[in-house]
Amino acid sequence: MSLMDKQLAPxxxxxxxxxLDVLFLAGGVGNPQVTPVELLQGLACxxxxxLRSAIVPLILRHPEFADDARIAAQAxxxxxxxxxxCFYTAALLLQREYRDRLARVLGAQPRLPDxxxxxxxxxxxxxxxxxxxxxxxxxxxxxxxxxxxxxxxRHAAERLIRHREVxxxxxxxxxxxxx
Length: 179
Fold this sequence. Notes:
The chain is mainly alpha-helical. Helix content is 61%, strand content 0%.
């Protein structure tokens, strides 16, 4: 079933993130049939900003979903498309910025490909901070929302990384609960 057939509820989106070990938000319910494409589309279309920003930690935790992000974007239009493209691109840049910390908490990860900068009309430079500011300005221009996009991107990444660092510090294994 495609997301276009059924809109996922916020609790289902959070539950799908939880099932993928992206413990970014609280209040999820299980939904084992959500594919990565459906999850990315659902997050991009979500009415709540906290859900839309969860694209960043999802992609950082699962860079193997890079192709799914491109497929998800092909089925989106208007603001959900901008959301998917901008938050994915933010994850790409933050993966570079936090490379060492991510490697310590997640292990070696494949580098994310740049799928969307050309479509967004931006050029990514070697300086991640400059590229994030450029992306944030473009995000603001495309959405009409003049918020601190760079801070939003960084907050999403930092929550994931700090959570994983605390788990490591406590030597806390991920436990599968019996159902």
